[in-house]
């Protein structure tokens, strides 16, 4: 697999296929799904559409299961060939075949339909993105600004406020954290460093969420006091990254409760989804139940992907009854 990836990055198409064929002869069953994705993606890049279809059909016939990256490749190809109706139709089908919709898929479709000036479709995509608990990345900034210019203020103001500079933040230097993809999915990373569209400032380089979370692992009175004295401006994106970075779900929960009391911050679908999956991953059933009850009382609709993750994590931890309870209730 590593050789295939290396050759794919350098666009050595023949070497990728050669390594794949050699690898297949050593296996008793089909290779992993990602190997099909690499070959199919390369066929698409060089315009060999029929060969790409053949690889996809071969994947199905040999018993390999397509994943979200497989469908991302197909969606990108449909967008590239200007078959936007087919691309959006496939995208809407994914939850019905239990495939997670990803940040990369949303990014590709939002950009394509913005360029095509089909802003009503972009509005629907943004609504679905929020429902799935996925935050937009800066690569979507141009699309959001086009939406705002067209009068879609209600749909874009909150997202743009989180992506653009906050007057309370002293902006100097560049952020050390280049990753904008907060999703725990198998899809490609989104380039969050593309700032050509807007000349925007960045957070101070010392504000690294992973390092900050690591320093707060004990969550004692001294650490909390120092955090309060720092007077940080808590945004949805920063809180999501903090929750993801905590090693302990209990510590993440303490931070989650603490930050909810900070001036100007309110938990939303993004932070709640992140916290619930963090707790479910580590088998914190009681805390998950508390959050699910809160979500139900406040009328917040969790995405299919979040519910599926809760059930999957419960299954891994062998919490059958809680998993069944969540399944029946949602």
Automatic annotation (TrEMBL):
Keyword Methyltransferase in annotation: no
UniProt biased composition (Acidic residues): 178-191
PPR repeat ranges per the UniProt record: 32-66
Region (Disordered): 176-201
Alphabetical UniProt keywords: Repeat
InterPro entries assigned: At5g66631-like (IPR044175), PPR_rpt (IPR002885), TPR-like_helical_dom_sf (IPR011990)
NCBIfam families found in the cross-reference section: PPR
Protein name (record): Putative pentatricopeptide repeat-containing protein-like
Species of the source: Solanum chacoense
């Amino acid at each position: 697999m590593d050789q295939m990836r290396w050759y794919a990055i350098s666009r050595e198409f023949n070497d990728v296929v050669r390594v794949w064929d050699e690898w297949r002869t050593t296996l008793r069953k089909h290779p992993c799904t990602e190997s099909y994705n690499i070959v199919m993606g390369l066929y698409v890049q060089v315009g060999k559409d029929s060969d790409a279809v053949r690889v996809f059909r071969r994947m199905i016939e040999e018993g390999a299961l397509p994943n979200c990256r497989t469908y991302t490749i197909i969606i990108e190809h449909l967008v590239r060939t200007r078959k936007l109706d087919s691309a959006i139709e496939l995208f809407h089908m994914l939850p019905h075949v239990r495939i997670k919709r990803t940040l990369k898929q949303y990014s590709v479709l939002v950009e394509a339909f913005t360029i095509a000036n089909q802003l009503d479709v972009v509005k629907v995509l943004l609504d679905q993105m929020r429902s799935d608990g996925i935050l937009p990345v800066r690569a979507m900034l141009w699309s959001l600004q086009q939406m705002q210019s067209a009068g879609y203020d209600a749909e874009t103001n909150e997202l743009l406020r989180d992506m653009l500079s906050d007057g309370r933040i002293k902006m100097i230097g560049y952020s050390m954290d280049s990753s904008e993809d907060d999703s725990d999915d198998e899809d490609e990373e989104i380039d969050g460093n593309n700032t050509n569209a807007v000349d925007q400032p960045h957070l101070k380089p010392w504000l690294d969420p992973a390092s900050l979370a690591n320093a707060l692992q004990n969550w004692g009175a001294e650490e909390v006091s120092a955090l309060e004295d720092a007077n940080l401006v808590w945004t949805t994106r920063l809180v999501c990254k903090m929750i993801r970075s905590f090693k302990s779900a209990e510590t993440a929960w303490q931070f989650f409760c603490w930050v909810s009391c900070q001036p100007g911050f309110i938990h939303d679908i993004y932070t709640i989804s992140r916290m619930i999956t963090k707790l479910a991953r580590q088998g914190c059933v009681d805390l998950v139940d508390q959050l699910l009850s809160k979500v139900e009382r406040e009328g917040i609709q969790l995405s299919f992907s979040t519910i599926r993750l809760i059930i999957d994590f419960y299954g891994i931890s062998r919490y059958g009854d809680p998993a069944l309870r969540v399944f029946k209730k949602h």
